[in-house]
Amino acid sequence: MLTKRIIPCLDIKNGRTVKGVNFVDLRDAGDPVELAKQYADQGADELVFLDITATLEARATTLEMVLHVAEQVNIPFTVGGGISSVEHVDALLKNGADKVSVNSSAVKRPELVNELADKFGSQCVVVAIDAKKIDNDWFVHLAGGTIPTDIKLFEWAKEVEKRGAGEILFTSMNHDGTKNGFANEALAKLSDILNIPIIASGGAGNVQHFVDTFKEGKSDAALAASVFHFGEIPIPELKKELKKQDIVVRL
């Protein structure tokens, strides 16, 4: 069985880590560089660093911030936010990122996924999908969840896999920040129809939610923010409990 991964997410706005509920009501959660080092030391498997207003404000992720975070960690590190070109990805990787996450720019121009996979390899390309369940169907949203589309989650996930995505980071907007658990039914379906790893995002509130997403949601990795940022679930304790529940993790 493949090792399951625990991934803290650093949502960045104006150089600070922030966290909200259902993508709104953001509050400060600390310095991203300090948090990144702390999580690497605690045993996080990877980190995700998302400049959440980069697309909205039509600006690129701050390369300097990426460099500072990368200097502090010795674990794989994904960067996203406003990425729309091969040149931008090249600069991010040179500054220390291991992977990049594309979201709105891939929906607007799906060929971007092909270009990035061809140039840097699929292992470098994470396609993030923010989706909301409306009338029993999941619809993709753009620009930090602010722009709805008529694109359906499962069709889009299959398309980006064909185009060369190496992983899917699926955030349920219905579950984000609620601490009521992950969208396991949708995650399990994604796992069934795709051959690439699925990262669960949105809804972590307690240790059992992580257990459930690995067992019921068939997730390959679980991403969370507030429960880690505000010290509610220490990563070493989380991993010990997962191991007790027969989930393979790196201790």
How do the strands and helices of this protein lay out in sequence?
Elements: E1 5-13, E2 16-21, E3 24-30, H1 32-42, E4 47-51, H2 63-72, E5 77-80, H3 86-94, E6 99-102, H4 104-108, H5 111-120, E7 125-134, E8 137-142, E9 147-152, H6 153-163, E10 167-172, H7 184-193, E11 198-201, H8 207-215, E12 221-224, H9 226-229, H10 235-244
Parallel strand pairs: 1-4, 1-12, 4-5, 5-6, 6-7, 7-10, 10-11, 11-12
Antiparallel strand pairs: 1-2, 2-3, 7-8, 8-9
Helix pairs in contact: 1-2
GO molecular function: imidazoleglycerol-phosphate synthase activity; lyase activity
Protein name: Imidazole glycerol phosphate synthase subunit HisF
Enzyme class: lyase
Description:
It is a single chain. The chain has helices at residues 32-42, 63-72, 86-94, 104-108, 111-120, 153-163, 184-193, 207-215, 226-229, 235-244, and strands at 5-13, 16-21, 24-30, 47-51, 77-80, 99-102, 125-134, 137-142, 147-152, 167-172, 198-201, 221-224. The relative contact order is 0.15. The model has no long low-confidence stretch (mean pLDDT 90). The chain is globular. It contains 10 helices and 12 strands. The protein has one domain (5-244): TIM Barrel (Alpha-Beta Barrel), CATH 3.20.20.70. The two termini are 15 Å apart. The protein is of the alpha/beta class and 251 residues long. The longest helix is centred in the N-terminal third of the chain and has 11 residues, at 32-42.
Question: Which features would summarize this protein structure in a list?
Answer:
12 strands; alpha/beta; 251 residues; 10 helices
